[in-house]
Specification:
The protein is an all-alpha fold. The chain contains eleven helices and no strands. Helix 7 runs parallel beside helix 9 and helix 10 packs antiparallel against helix 11. It is globular, with a radius of gyration of 19 Å. The protein starts with a helix and ends with a helix. The relative contact order is 0.07.
Length: 247
């Protein structure tokens, strides 16, 4: 009996560490813009799903890993990472959306994938733009308390041209909501790339709207959360230098 209990306890601890390492992999990949680390995160979650192919939690974990990787690929100097995963990711997310039509987070992640495609090939906006926007709206409609859904909604409003429904103030509202909902659940903040991403994008949206002090505060907040976040340091130094030049 003691042996059985010890084995079950060991398996529980191992499973917890495995989940934590996946989250940490995505976080480190985001911070360091590391294609190999993102690939490890996707491979790990794919293996977990292979062991439990009908587990809805594992399915969403892999969807999230794809979502993380493709968002990260947008900051890469070439399209290799994006090209390697876009087809599988889109196929996988479309199936989840079909199986879970009321899942706001699934809709939001598929919206983001379409947005990534448009970002890489702007001409696809004519075909995918309305799909992406519709799915982003469904995300916050079906799961209004999801930071992920609000983050995707904000990104959609930020990058969509105003003539097609883009709205800078709505983007600001969306990222503010993302941060608010994330902070309401403090246990989720550790190694949370999506939270950090929302803070820096909120800063950029503030900056675009002409709210320099709010932008600076956002970048400084990002560096409190993660002092090694070089992208936030660059944005902060840039806006401060620009402010000094105008004086």
């Amino acid at each position: 009996m003691k042996t059985t209990i010890s084995f079950l306890l060991a398996m529980f601890i191992y499973g917890s560490l495995l989940a934590q390492s996946t989250q940490e992999l995505m976080y480190q990949a985001y911070l360091n813009r590391s294609a190999e680390t993102w690939k490890k995160a996707v491979d790990l979650t794919a293996k977990e799903l292979t062991a439990k192919p009908n587990d809805p939690t594992k399915q969403m974990d892999l969807a999230y890993a794809y979502f993380s990787l493709l968002n990260g690929s947008m900051a890469m100097p070439n399209d290799d990472l994006f090209d390697e995963y876009i087809s599988d990711a889109k196929k996988f997310l479309k199936k989840i959306v079909e199986d879970k039509p009321k899942s706001g987070e699934a809709a939001a992640m598929l919206s983001s994938i379409y947005g990534n495609e448009i970002g890489k090939s702007p001409m696809k906006g004519m075909l995918l733009g309305s799909k992406s926007s519709s799915l982003a709206e469904k995300g916050i409609l079906f799961e209004p308390n999801s930071p992920l859904a609000w983050s995707v909604y904000a990104s959609n409003k930020y990058y969509t041209p105003s003539s097609f429904g883009g709205d800078l103030q709505e983007a600001i509202k969306g990222w503010e909501k993302t941060i608010q909902l994330s902070q309401a659940n403090a246990g989720t903040l550790k190694d949370n790339w999506l939270y950090l991403n929302a803070i820096v994008f909120l800063g950029q949206a503030y900056e675009k709207a002409g709210s320099r002090e709010k932008a600076i505060a956002a970048y400084e907040k990002a560096l409190v959360v993660e002092p090694q976040f070089q992208y936030a340091k660059m944005l902060l130094n840039k806006i401060k230098n620009t402010s000094n030049e105008k004086k």
